[in-house]
Amino acid sequence: MKQWMLACGISFFSSICLAAQPSDQAVNKLMQVMKLDQLLQRTIQQIRPQLDQQAYMVVKNIVQHEQLTPPEQIVANQLADKMYQQSQKTVAWKEMQPIYQKIYKDVYNAEEIQAQIDFYSSPIGQSILNKTPQVAQESMKVMNSRLASTIQATEKDFQEINTQLEQLKKSAQGSSQ
């Protein structure tokens, strides 16, 4: 009796720990239902304004004045174009598909993959997926705003540190003479 209970316990524990690995076919079906390739491209298109803003801030921080001149704005636009092109290359589906494939297989078991397929195949699941780029865009706006203030604070910190280092350098030169 004890052996039977032990065998059942081991069997139960094993089934929990060793949930079925999802097949490549199931993961591909999930990515297809989720339209991940289209989602990535729409997300990149929707974050273009944030990339423009980032480029503007970078150029503004380099030139150290509040308003960009027309030639500086052209440089900011060129930088934004390059950032956008690089982002498109970085998240191209042919690059991302194998990465997503591995992540989904590593993180989810077969039952979880199937549950997602079922959910994202439903009208409410599709509605949520269609709003995902908007969520990404709004998140990017918040992050850019926060990063811009962090950059400004960091620049101020660097200026203070440079001032302290210059004072130390002058003190060291003064005491060595």
From TrEMBL:
Residues 1-19 form the signal peptide. Keywords: Signal. It comes from the Bacteria. InterPro entries: DUF2059. Residues 95-151 form the DUF2059 domain. This is DUF2059 domain-containing protein.
